[in-house]
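Saturday, quiet lab. Running sequence design on the structure tokens for the scaffold JK sent over.
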């Protein structure tokens, strides 16, 4: 019964939306150029008029909700708006009009939010892309973008997405967790914080390693707070997420190719350029490709204290991942030479994990101290009680 009622509401939304759009056009109201109050008043009038004309009985509470939904449709990103406003939500995953999931405190759960149909999902994707001049069609069926608040968006449509348009949003939070918050939540201990501060201030080159959603960017933001204020920092990211509380930061961001497939600026090119900008430290949001070569060489040539994140499920896995990135990027050297490059450049690996209950923790902090027998010999500076 609830499903039928919800279907009826989605149909009502679709019909009301058409009326609202027509009414705004009739009244000559350009949403992009009008103040929010004027648009809200016009939407409210159009909704009440439509309900009255068609004698649709709704409670005052349902009418208020319908008006709010219509305002979100014409001024924002439709059903996504309520999820974007919810500060508890970290990720929004739209797998089709009826399957919307959110991540709250590390745990995925299905949301009650729905889209009308696949065309509705596609309309919202195109609204996100419109101000960015990006295209999404059969010729270019997937795209990365960023919302005005900095949230990261990936969208993919048929024929690549077999079950209809899909959206993945990693929300951007300007109010990053402080060390006290992480200690209070049990994500790390005072001992761990002390180890991290010491590593940053003694200019150790560091990699924050972890799986998806383990809080790598949060940790990078946290440890960067302890960089001396006299240092000049250059950050390089695909989507700017780092918010460094530091007086001397230059932020660089990669650029995707345009609709003609030209103009792409890669992280590797930005790292090369950053070396010409007199940085004391370079921070790469995440190493995913050939930028690893330049980053390791920068760490080896006077840019001690540089940092990045890496997708890996363990400290040993992180080293294997770096080796793999070097290999696929065309770095030709013997295994021994590659191991020497990595261990001479990299000092500390901070490993993050997400426990089955969704809690994110610092599982271990290791220092690389190569020996004759083991080029990747590690000394544990910190281990969580969950790993002991």
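Result came back. Writing it out in full:
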């Amino acid at each position: 019964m609830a499903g039928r009622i919800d279907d009826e509401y989605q149909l009502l939304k679709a019909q009301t939306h058409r009326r609202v759009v027509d009414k705004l056009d009739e009244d000559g109201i350009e949403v992009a150029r009008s103040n929010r109050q004027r648009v809200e008043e016009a939407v409210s009038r159009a909704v009440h008029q439509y309900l009255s004309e068609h004698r649709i009985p709704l409670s005052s509470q349902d009418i208020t909700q319908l008006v709010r939904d219509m305002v979100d449709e014409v001024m924002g990103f439709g059903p996504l708006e309520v999820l974007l406003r919810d500060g508890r939500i970290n990720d929004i995953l739209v797998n089709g009009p009826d399957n919307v999931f959110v991540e709250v405190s590390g745990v995925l759960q299905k949301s009650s939010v729905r889209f009308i149909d696949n065309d509705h999902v596609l309309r919202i994707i195109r609204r996100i892309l419109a101000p960015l001049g990006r295209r999404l069609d059969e010729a270019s069926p997937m795209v990365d973008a960023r919302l005005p608040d900095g949230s990261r968006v990936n969208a993919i449509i048929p024929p690549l997405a077999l079950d209809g348009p899909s959206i993945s949003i990693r929300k951007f939070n300007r109010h990053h967790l402080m060390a006290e918050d992480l200690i209070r939540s049990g994500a790390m201990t005072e001992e761990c914080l002390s180890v991290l501060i010491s590593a940053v201030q003694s200019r150790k080159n560091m990699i924050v390693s972890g799986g998806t959603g383990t809080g790598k960017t949060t940790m990078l933001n946290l440890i960067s707070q302890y960089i001396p204020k006299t240092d000049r920092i250059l950050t390089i990211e695909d989507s700017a997420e780092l918010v460094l509380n530091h007086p001397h930061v230059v932020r660089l961001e990669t650029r995707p190719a345009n609709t003609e497939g030209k103009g792409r600026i890669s992280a590797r090119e930005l790292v090369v350029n950053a070396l010409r900008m007199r940085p004391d430290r370079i921070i790469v949001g995440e190493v995913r490709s050939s930028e690893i070569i330049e980053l390791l060489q920068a760490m080896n040539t006077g840019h001690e204290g540089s940092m990045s994140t890496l997708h890996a499920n363990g400290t040993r896995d992180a080293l294997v991942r770096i080796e793999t990135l070097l290999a696929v990027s065309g770095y030709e050297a013997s295994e021994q030479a590659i191991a020497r490059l990595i261990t001479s450049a990299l000092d500390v690996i901070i490993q993050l994990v997400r426990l089955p209950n969704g809690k994110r923790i610092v599982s271990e902090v290791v220092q690389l101290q190569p020996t004759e027998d083991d080029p990747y010999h590690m000394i544990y500076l910190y281990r969580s009680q969950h790993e002991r």
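Notes for JK: The chain is about 40% helix and 20% strand. The chain has a mean pLDDT of 87. Ask whether to fix the surface positions before the next round.
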